[in-house]
Amino acid sequence: MASSTLPRPRGIIRSSIALASTLALAAVLTACGSDDGGDSAGDSGSGDDSGLTTVSSGTLTVCSDVPYPPFEDFDDTSESGFKGFDIDIVQAIADGLELELAVKDSSFDALQSGQALNANQCDIAASAMTITEERQAALDFSDGYYDSQQSLLVAEDSDIASIDDLDGVKVGVQQGTTGKVYAEENATGAELVSFPSDAEMFQAIKAGQVEALLQDLPVNINHQDQGGFSVVETYSTDESYGLAMKKGNTALVDAVNEQLSEMRDDGTYDEIYNSYFATE
Amino acid sequence: MALKRSTRRTLSRAVLYAVLLGVLLLVGLSADWATIRANFFAPAGIGNPFTGDWGTWPDLLTVGVKNSLIYTAVAFGAGLVLGVVLALMRLSPVAAYRWIATAYIEFFRGLPVLLVVLVMAFGIPIAFNGWTPPGGTVGAGVVGLILVAAAYMAETIRAGIQAVPKGQTEAARSLGMSAGRTTITVVLPQAFRIVIPPLTNEFVLLIKDTALLFVIGFAADQRELTTIARDFMASSETAGTATSLIQASILYLLITLPLTRLVSWLERKQQKAR
């Protein structure tokens, strides 16, 4: 048997297996390197004179940390699959720019740090995000579209009545939020506990892991409505939510601001605002 | 001392059972059952199949379980291919290949999977001019899983290859088979039979690791099981309760328990065959 095969040098086959392996690896790596993304990617100025360049052509891709009612939530019945104040705002902007709206659920930390935008996951981050100086170092913001207030939520039978009562108290805050920063600066002596999102925070206060939650007012009001908890204090911060875009994408920032001011002029903004925050 | 040995044994058993019962009773009595029911078993989420109300199960199943399994399958398949390549490199007579494979394996086994997933999801598009793997961010996250899974599987497969008796190779070579043909037709098939149980374990680990993808961006219909369960804590009819976490746990167990049983069955079978 095997009498017909020529004698082969022993090392060759083995080395060719090894070589093939390397080539396969190299192929994978070069495939990674190939620039499918085209010019939509890369350098900071992704807009050009002719119009808007978006990460997915014809579509306005919006990243948001869903769910965060009433600002963003899931909704099978809506076209984008999402609903909420932020979603309605960006839907109106997309309509105005004649783009389709696509929403992606992301972690808030990735949004406020600019990672998601830099990684070209989306064109806009719309996630109840307060405009702050720190964030402006990594992101470009639209004009403010919602005046934000912070608030303190405690159990109905709690002794805590204000931010001055938080000495030695465990207070739940969300990682990367202005609520956390506000608590760090104003809740003297409080022991801050960070959570990835509001879902975990609300479970924590129910489980008695923390005694209070310091975060955006509408979200705490939502919990108050669910029963057992009440908002004892609100804090004006002179801050407002902005839509965040990749640093240097001025074309998109201008286009978004134009849409926002149009919405304020023609009453669309008030309509959306009242459908979520009307106070009768 | 006067007790008979068998009486003593019965008595000590009775004491052990009494202790167990006492502990269970204590836990049962101190637990807040009303709250447990409201928080972990909210009727709105559990539903009532008799009335045609399936609660939040359909979303968890059709989106969550489906995607978790898809991500696991992709990560496992690609990880296996890469793992075989790494294992062969590790056994290569060329020193440079061994070094590269060893460095790769040590590197990815030494890092938390969560960290690899994060770096991949935000690193790949920035590193490669905005290019993302198929599936976008999710694809990048799955690449993270692949890289780590391949490192673990490479070691398993290497052990499997080395467990094939040397006589098999020697016999094949003395029949005139080339080294490459011996590897592919004689050694690898036997190695794979040996490593099926540990590879199935790796599959189970991967199913659970897909939960780590929650840190990256998902479209609504791309979410895996844990992400959906977390989202339902703040959204849907079970908002404010942890019912969805229990539901997701049940679904994970429905997938993983049969697999782990399968692994121990395979292991027993292999033991007998020896």
From TrEMBL, chain A:
Taxonomic superkingdom: Bacteria
Domain Ionotropic glutamate receptor C-terminal: 59-279
Keywords: Signal
Nucleotide-binding listed as a keyword: no
Signal recorded as keyword: yes
GO MF annotation terms: ligand-gated monoatomic ion channel activity
GO CC, alphabetical: membrane
Protein's organism: Nocardioides eburneiflavus
Residue ranges of domain Solute-binding protein family 3/N-terminal in the record: 59-280
Protein name in the entry: Transporter substrate-binding domain-containing protein
Signal peptide positions on this chain: 1-26
From TrEMBL, chain B:
InterPro entries found in the cross-reference section: AA_ABC_transptr_permease_3TM, ArtM/GltK/GlnP/TcyL/YhdX-like, MetI-like, MetI-like_sf
Gene Ontology molecular functions: transmembrane transporter activity
GO cellular component: ATP-binding cassette (ABC) transporter complex
Database matches in PROSITE patterns: ABC_TM1
Top-level taxon of origin: Bacteria
Membrane topology type: Multi-pass membrane protein
One GO term of the biological process aspect: amino acid transport
Family indicated by similarity: Belongs to the binding-protein-dependent transport system permease family.
PANTHER family: L-CYSTINE TRANSPORT SYSTEM PERMEASE PROTEIN TCYL, MEMBRANE COMPONENT OF AMINO ACID ABC TRANSPORTER
Protein name: Amino acid ABC transporter permease
